[in-house]
Amino acid sequence: MEDNKDNSVKDTEQKPLERTEGKTGGKTMAEKAIDRFAQMMVTRLEEMKGQQWEKGWIDGGGRTQGLPQNLSGRRYSGHNDFFLQLHTAINGYDAPVYATYKQIRDAGATVNKGEKAMPVIYWNISHKDENGQKVSDDAYDAMTKAEQAKVKTIPIMMGYYVWNLQQTNFAEVKPEQYAKLTGQFKAPHVADTKGMYESKEFDAMIDKQAWVCKIKAVEGAGASYSEARDEITIPMKAQFKIHDTPEEVYKDGMEYYSSIAHEMAHSTGIEKRLGRDMEGHFGDKKYAKEELVAELTAAMVGNTMGFDKRILDNNAKYVDGWMDTLKKEPRFILSVMADVNKASKMILDHVDAQRLEMGMKTLQPKEEATNEKATESKVAPETKMDMAAEPIGKPKTKAEEKAEIAKEAAAVFKDLKEKHPDALLLLRKGDFYEAIGDDAKKVAKSTGLKEQHIIKEGFEQKNDKEKGISYVNFKNTSLDKYLPKLVRDGHRVAICDSLEDIAKQRIDERKEKQAKAEVQQTKVNGQQQTAQMAKTIPLEQFNKLETEDGKKIDHFAVFKMKSGNYGVRAMVDGQQMSVKALDKEDRNAFFEHTTTKAALVQKYYGKELSQPKQEERSRARAV
Prior knowledge:
alpha+beta, five-stranded mixed β-sheet, four-stranded antiparallel β-sheet
């Protein structure tokens, strides 16, 4: 039986852990997995700190490369990649190949007694109607878009257990398959002329400037990323050669590429790419999360490519803060790993592009767990749940919220100018007043303030696009100095609240109005549903398996076809009927019980049933 305390196998007849969103021992399976991941990260940080940062994040020693996968070759993605890589390295396993209990059993193998499983988490979705009743996936797929809009879709984090192949007797019962599976993860020993580790993919990316921003190599410089210039600066590789032994010199090369990967990770985070919160600067507590994302991204990319990533010396100051946060808020790891997964994928996509040009095999499997719709029909039921896709209906990113507010602020400005066409608008902006466009030119002329130009999202840029729109601002304490000058020059002046504040208020009011409308619509829908239920056919009549002319229906089924449409199949009086495509109206009527199975058989097979059977036609011809 399964021991829920340590998830270890007590005997070879153990039953698989049920995949459940229900709570056991006060915490859900997913919550237990999050706690485990957070503790693994804290333990790793403590080990690195205790060994003066000589131990790598994953510490795979460059033995393996590639991303974790299951027996069928599908990748474990989302939050699971890093921790399965870490689990593989900690235990010295040959490859990051994992499988569920059922997959192991179906392969003819068993989990070794006493082995502790690793948790895997994924997102599932639950559909509920206006009355809070659960709606099955099939029923939801069969609905019209209007009907689906009335259904609430809720993302749910769930989890299950997997074991590495070396925690089983798989190598004994399937030696050839085991060798094939693990062999593809063996990292080759690739050294340059100085004996340092060499990544031909990164070298090509730098030589051809094939990354998303410019990478500039400068002798004597340190590694850095400039958001203002959108440019990475890296030292020369020779600067990293600080050891004498061949083994350590080889690892020095790994440190060079690790530094590049770290700065690449930072460059993925700006607004026009992944839109992470990049505020603050190095050393700030606010910037600590961004540094952790960059470190773990570089570690995951490095381990996938076959090299180790040690923590940067100047990031050691963040370690205690990271550990404290993880201990207090284990779910912090979810936010971090969501960013790590996206950044890693962007880098590995570019790495794989270089590998393809070189005639090498890509590091990322073709089928990815984030592409659920594309792989759903190809995946066996037991592996389908390996998916770790992003939750549906996720909130807007900060970049999206910022863009929405900017657009609304431009609309607010336009409305104010239409309402006060002859007034010059001074807009509050924190401790400043600002003027925009033609108003800015007038303010500059009357006060002697310097006219500036800025790119302001949502505003029409009347000037050179590179310059942007006219702009002037001054401290609020200087209002008494400049206002008399504006009035003396004959300007009517209107002092307004911050455009952004008004915009946010408008957006909130709109959302509140929409929420009230949805509540009202729910009431209307409820009334309509009540009326609809009055038309629902009783279950006995709905399931009556006999046509109007007395023919017996031996079998009847409505099902989803590979095309995505719904079809019907029936056997009547022992005669197997052909598959027919259902009209949308009939499909909906079937799921809503406003028609009967017999009526559908009569409609779709009436002509065939009215003809005599083949043997009857043969006897008629013989007579």
